[in-house]
Design a protein that fits this description.
The protein has three domains: 39 residues, no CATH class; 92 residues, Ubiquitin-like (UB roll), CATH 3.10.20.10; 132 residues, 3-Layer(aba) Sandwich (Cytidine Deaminase, domain 2), CATH 3.40.140.10. It is 27% helix and 35% strand. It has eight helices and 17 strands. The strands form four sheets. It has a six-stranded mixed beta sheet with strand order 12-11-13-14-15-16. Strands 7-8-5-6-9 form a five-stranded mixed beta sheet. Strand 11 and strand 12 form a beta hairpin.
Length: 287
């Protein structure tokens, strides 16, 4: 199956994500052979609110309604799903435009921000105008979620199996939702870690899930904005396969979010509010 963006064609992975198949030269132990390779796609995705341009992000061109909703909520453009009245997706030669119609009160507040940004794969704060925008006041996280640490580890094992685009290309991050029973119920992939999380949070918002009753799993480092997006929606636990940053730890501590990093087989590190994690049946080995 293919997705056509005017003059470009992308294949669609079984999970719905887009990639391109290219002819390459494979060098291996001094030998050169022709080989086909799968490349994860990223295209410019422009976000417009009430026909006013706000942001251009580089993203994997799938599940863009989820992305637009998650981005709008975690960026504080809208306060709730009901503030978004309509979403249109328009494909063009050079990219995709997502046009959102939002409430008049949210649009008035948006115009006061005077913020434009060009989002790159590895950047989550491009375009922030001042420190006040960066250090947003967050409500305290109130979550009763509680997990044995081995359940988080099993969650990452299941997540890895579900990452069809990453397994095809090796180029994407994923964000996943684990419910109270330990099941990975939702997963989103993207070339950008922030985009993957926004897609997931948008999907969960559409389904009206209770963010306080579960955990987020991410296949990247836990940077400041990943913690910010999670805490803003009241998520109790954020677990990352890699390291956190110092700002992320401080924000997790001050907001009441449980932050775990380096979640691997038989080991993890807990950086804040560890009471939501309980000892496994089989104690962890020393890290």
């Amino acid at each position: 199956m293919t997705l056509t963006l005017r003059n470009n064609q992308f294949a669609i992975a079984p999970g719905g994500s887009t990639y391109r198949v290219l002819s390459t030269q494979r060098w291996n132990h001094g030998k050169v052979v022709s080989a086909m390779d799968c490349i994860a796609e990223e295209v410019p995705v422009a976000l417009e609110y009430n026909r006013v341009s706000y942001a251009v992000m580089l993203a994997t061109p799938d599940q863009l309604e989820d992305f637009a909703i998650g981005f709008s909520i975690t960026e504080g453009i809208v306060q709730r799903l009901e503030d978004i009245h309509d979403i249109d997706i328009i494909e063009a030669d050079r990219g995709i435009t997502v046009r959102l119609t939002i409430s008049s009160s949210c649009f008035r507040a948006l115009k006061l921000k005077r913020r434009t940004l060009a989002g790159r794969t590895g950047c989550g704060l491009c375009g922030t105008e001042n420190l006040e925008q960066l250090y947003r006041q967050l409500p305290a996280v109130e979550s009763s979620a509680c997990y044995p640490v081995e359940m988080l580890q099993r969650g990452f094992e299941h997540l890895n199996k579900q990452q069809q685009l990453k397994n095809l290309t090796g180029a994407t991050h994923a964000a996943a939702w684990m419910d109270q029973t330990g099941q990975v119920t939702h997963m989103r992939e993207d070339v950008g870690r922030h985009n993957a999380l926004d897609k997931l949070l948008g999907c969960l918002s559409r389904e009206r899930l209770d963010f306080s009753q579960g955990a987020l799993l991410i296949t990247s480092r836990a940077s400041y904005e990943m913690v910010l997006k999670s805490a803003l929606l009241g998520v109790g636990i954020l677990a990352a396969i890699s390291a956190p940053t110092g700002m992320a730890v401080r924000l997790a501590e001050s907001s009441g979010l449980t932050l775990a990093g380096f979640v691997r087989e038989n080991r993890l590190l807990v950086y804040s509010h560890g009471a939501r994690l309980i000892q496994s049946i089989h104690p962890l080995e020393s890290i």
